[in-house]
Amino acid sequence: FSVGNNLIKAFIELKRYQEAKSLVEALFMQKRSDWKEGLNYWSDELDNLMMDFGPVEDNEPPKVTLMPITKPIWLHKLNSVDNIIPAKMSKPFTILTTSGSCSLKENHDEIIIQKTNEEGSICRGVPLSFCDKLNLETNGQATMVVPIFANAGFVFCAKRHEVDWAIKLTEQMPCDIIVLPHLYADLDIWRMEFRIFEPTVPQQVKTITVEFNPEQPSLALKQLVDEACLYITESYSVKLANGLVSASQITPDLFAHYVDANESCLALSLACNIEDGASTLYGERHIFDRLLALALEEPNSDIHKMMLISAMAKNKAYSSDIYQEYEKKLQKLFKEQTSTSMVSTVLNNALGDIYGREACSLIIE
Prior knowledge:
Blueprint: H1 2-13, H2 17-28, H3 36-50, E1 54-55, E2 64-69, E3 94-98, E4 101-104, E5 112-113, H4 118-137, E6 141-149, H5 163-172, E7 177-185, E8 190-197, E9 204-212, H6 218-235, H7 255-273, H8 284-297, H9 302-317, H10 327-336, H11 341-355
């Protein structure tokens, strides 16, 4: 490893970053656990050097498009998932939401490219998790609209979305109600709100708010999602339904980890949908290691197993080879943990699709 380490340093000093990255990837493929810490360091360094973080110098603002998410993002790239979500009526009650806006201590007027931070993860992960609960546990249809820069990354809005944004979205995507999330992260104690609008009423009909310490957000974020879903089921024609997978499998104290993992799964899906998608990601192996750790920590959560296998499918889809490093870890995990027959079928098929049919026999149903 010392020879490789010196070569990586030399490539970086010469600003031959792609050659350095190729060498790092080749060394990762050796699957040496004693090299992983050092390789992770170089991988992070190269991401910082190659991703060009900072203000966008182009005078013409990037084009913004809307990415609709109509089912749990961790089902993306998985087959045989139709029965995971409860059956919907031909014309279900529809709920629309979007990535949350955010008030920050320091706002920037210019467009900036930056790594995903905690605020961004919450602003995207909480509405995703809200939609998960509605889609998995009711007969309603929840859709999240994610604003993205074309062939770049997520839009992070530092100004609170107001009623004009709700009207604009509902004109493009008709719905029965729309929920606008906003995170107030400009004080030591953070606050997040869901404002609920009806398209026929040009003002909000309900606001649900929670406050939390950003160091311990889990219970408050879960409370926000639960209260919003309860309000919808009590106030509108949305009924509870029994699906094969439930958001209640998530341990309340670990809910913020689920939110963060959901946002990571969204980032991986975005990478599948744009040209050179891997360039939009920072620290891919850190993402996969976190998803693996959650699946190990919550063995009763089918959601975390599907998050992990979906991440591998997405990694393969955007032409990366990192998924190959996790084959034995996934085989061991799925062999030791049991799931319902239907979920086992999904995991079984995914293993076969990603690694070859011989991997399927390792799941015990």
